[in-house]
Amino acid sequence: MATTRAAERGAGQGAVAPALFVSHGAPTAALAHDAYTDALGAFGRQAGSPTALLVVSGHWEVSGPLRLTATEAPRLIYDFGGFPDALYRVRYPCPGAPALAEAAAALLRAGGLAAELEPSRGLDHGVWVPLLHVFPEAQVPVVQLSLPRGAGPGEVRRMGEALAPLRRQGVLLVGSGGLVHNLRRIDFSGPDAPPMPWAQAFDSWMAERIAAQDLEALDDWEQAPGAALAHPSPEHLLPLFFTLGAALPGDHPRPVYEGIQYGSLSLRSFALDH
User: Fold this and answer.
1) Domain with 182 in it: what CATH number?
2) How many domains does the chain fold into?
3) Are 272 and 215 in contact (CB under 8 A)?
């Protein structure tokens, strides 16, 4: 299997990268400086120097084979509208990692999942908004992996399982979505609006089962209190299952941040590591 030279160096050093689930919130998080962004920065410093990042975002779903970005210098996709002009001027000039994309595609195929390289697509805001705070220097190479349209938790977890060996090569695997994500119920009075009761109930239910690593209950998340309101569509929850699938023996969930903004956007994030 092809690997990047950086990944080979990481493996040789015995470096095992964590896996991360990050709730990326609203696009305006890119411009924020608050407890949430501070927590992401602290995680990045604790994570050290991963050889690369491989990210699944709730903003890229495809039919057919999975796709991986495979460009040397990925552009940013500003996949939102109606926000301050400053947000469209944000830059995150990270390098890509085509060799890692090839290696990841091979692992996915070996796990029975069709995968192809995508040479022209950039990184959507589900990737670059949190990375602005986790690794602000933009020096770590980044590959984005699509979600399979219409998939359930089990199929997405298989993606993480197939790619988990990359963690032993220093590659940090990231699922970027939102533990609660209902744009129709946003409280526009501000990010500090009190959490809506259904959002708090779902967020707490999920947090308890993540801490217990209760995959059976998490797979059945639609039975949780407030589920229909927390996720009118599942694409922002599915990256969670990528991260859970990327667990290695002995891993435990470690909280990175917890909180709800705008009443209906959970920012709860956690890492899996030893």
Assistant:
1) 3.40.830.10
2) 1
3) no
